[in-house]
């Protein structure tokens, strides 16, 4: 360079000095920032990892938290090929490596690994690989957090939730079964164990509508124990209750079909509802009932009609019409029972 005079030389020297000062200042700032960054990173409980590859020259960095997570005492141990091959035998770590090779990043990836000391830990990893366009520089930044306690707490919470859900289902089932039992009890006569008047009414209404739809006959038998007041006066109410129980058992036993219903209609009155049953079959069943109850040979010394307990039966059969109601068959069977009583 041809320098014209000393003034020009002084100007150039001054410029070079300013540039050198600025470079020194920037280097000092960068060094200070790096020290602050390293100080912060090394105080974190989360593992931090950086790998820089420049033209095949690889530089690694890891903070103490990362070494602690993997159970290593030094960075040399952490970044050794021996440890890498050990971790690559484990599915979770291989998943992380495969995703990084394929996607160049992972976010909150959870995987479990076994350390060399045999301890199983769960990690959450976020990492990315970056290469500036046209550059031979590549770096990977990653954070890895030990979430073992959180994972175990989550599993305990899930187990508690599942246990609670199971108990709720079991309790719900118990309540449903209890409600079913209570409903069954509410539809059962407490003394005789057969259907009560409430269930009789429900059943009759349902079967009447079915018979109406299908145009099928439905029959009903009403039974009344003859001179039952005299029986109670003579033998007492305990014997009277036992008498009613035996009649109910006979009534229930004589109805072989699951579609038939035996019920206590009230007091010493009983009823049979016989869906899809014509008059002739209902009459045959009534005759069997008369014989079966007399065959119980329940003594009734004050009865004016027999030395044993007897019953009177009235029956009715209908094919329901469109506008008819169940009351029509009830009234007819009750009138038939009245006629039977009157005729002895």
Describe the protein's topology.
Layout: H1 6-42, E1 47-54, E2 57-62, H2 64-69, H3 75-78, H4 81-88, H5 91-103, E3 105-114, E4 120-130, E5 137-146, H6 148-186, H7 197-214, E6 218-225, H8 228-235, H9 237-254, E7 261-266, E8 269-275, H10 279-294, E9 311-318, H11 327-343
Antiparallel strand pairs: 1-2, 1-5, 3-4, 4-5, 6-8, 6-9, 7-8
Strand order in space, largest sheet: 2-1-5-4-3
Major beta sheet, specifics?
5 strands, antiparallel
- Mean model confidence by pLDDT: 89
End-to-end Cα distance, whole Å, is 151 Å
By helix and strand content, what is the structural category? alpha+beta
Tally of separate helices: 11
Order of helices and strands: HEEHHHHEEEHHEHHEEHEH
What percent of residues are in strands? Answer: 15-25%
- Helical proportion, percent range: 40-55%
Quantity of strands, as a count: 9
Rounded to an integer in angstroms, the radius of gyration calculated over CA atoms is 48 Å
Query: Rough shape?
Result: rod-shaped
Q: Which runs of at least 5 residues are low in confidence (pLDDT < 50)?
A: none
Structure characterization notes:
By secondary structure, the chain is of the alpha+beta class. The chain has helices at residues 6-42, 64-69, 75-78, 81-88, 91-103, 148-186, 197-214, 228-235, 237-254, 279-294, 327-343, and strands at residues 47-54, 57-62, 105-114, 120-130, 137-146, 218-225, 261-266, 269-275, 311-318. The chain has a 5-stranded antiparallel beta sheet, sandwiched between helices. A 4-stranded antiparallel beta sheet has the order 7-8-6-9, sandwiched between helices. A hairpin with a 6-residue loop joins strand 4 (120-130) and strand 5 (137-146). It is rod-shaped. It starts with 5 loop residues before the first helix and ends with a helix. 21% of the residues are buried.
């Amino acid at each position: 360079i041809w320098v014209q005079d000393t003034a020009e030389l002084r100007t150039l020297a001054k410029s070079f000095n300013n540039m050198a000062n600025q470079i020194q200042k920037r280097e000092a700032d960068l060094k200070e920032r790096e020290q602050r960054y390293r100080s912060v990173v090394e105080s974190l409980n989360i593992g931090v990892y950086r790998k820089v590859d420049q033209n095949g020259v690889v530089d690694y960095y890891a903070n103490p938290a990362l070494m602690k997570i993997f159970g290593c005492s030094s960075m040399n141990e952490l970044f050794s090929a021996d440890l890498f091959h050990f971790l690559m035998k484990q599915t979770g770590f291989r998943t992380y490596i495969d995703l990084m090779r394929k996607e160049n990043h992972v976010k909150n990836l959870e995987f479990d690994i076994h350390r060399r000391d045999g301890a199983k830990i769960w990690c959450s990893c976020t990492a990315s690989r970056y290469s500036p366009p046209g550059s031979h520089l590549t770096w990977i930044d990653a954070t890895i957090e030990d979430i073992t306690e959180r994972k175990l707490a989550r599993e305990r919470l899930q187990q508690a939730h599942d246990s609670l859900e199971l108990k709720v289902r079991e309790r719900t089932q118990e309540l449903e079964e209890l409600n079913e039992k209570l409903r069954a009890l509410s539809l059962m006569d407490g003394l005789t164990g057969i259907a009560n008047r409430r269930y009789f009414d429900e059943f009759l209404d349902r079967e009447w509508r079915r018979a109406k739809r299908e145009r099928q006959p439905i029959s009903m038998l009403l039974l009344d124990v003859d001179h039952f007041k005299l029986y109670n006066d003579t033998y007492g109410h305990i014997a009277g209750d036992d008498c009613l129980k035996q009649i109910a058992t006979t009534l229930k036993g004589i109805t072989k079909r699951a579609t038939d219903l035996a019920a206590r209609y009230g007091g010493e009155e009983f009823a049979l509802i016989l869906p899809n049953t014509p008059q002739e079959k209902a009459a045959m069943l009534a005759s069997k009932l008369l014989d079966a109850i007399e065959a119980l040979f329940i003594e009734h010394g004050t009865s004016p009609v027999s030395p044993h307990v007897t019953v009177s039966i009235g029956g009715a059969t209908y094919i329901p019409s469109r506008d008819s109601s169940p009351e029509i068959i009830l009234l007819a069977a009750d009138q038939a029972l009245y006629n039977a009583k009157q005729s002895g």
